[in-house]
Amino acid sequence: MSKSFTTITGDVSKALATLRKEIPDTMQGFNAMAKGALQGGAIDELHKELIALAIGVASRCDACIGFHVKALIRLGVTKEQLMETLGICAYMGGGPTLMYAAEAVRAYEELTAKLQPAA
């Protein structure tokens, strides 16, 4: 059965809402760290998201792939930027990472298709 990154990110978002309610201090701390880490500086936000995606691919984290691909699309990533990043993932992580690089391609295709107007 094929994964839906829309479903994965939606399901995880619901669970994260529960965590925000149950452990608010921890979640506020994590959110502050994420905001600080992703803020543009010497490395812009798009390139930081590409790094985050690469780590998600290497870690084989479906939700990470979904959330970071969504962010990259919002930031205007080009397909070429995404593919070159995934090429580095495969180079550094070998076959198993290549399989999750393919999952990132599927996430990109699924999530960009939702942005296309119906024909």
Automatic annotation (TrEMBL):
It comes from the Bacteria. Residues 24-106 form the Carboxymuconolactone decarboxylase-like domain. NCBIfam families: ahpD_dom (TIGR00778). This is AhpD family alkylhydroperoxidase. The lineage of its organism: Bacteria, Pseudomonadati, Pseudomonadota, Betaproteobacteria, Rhodocyclales.
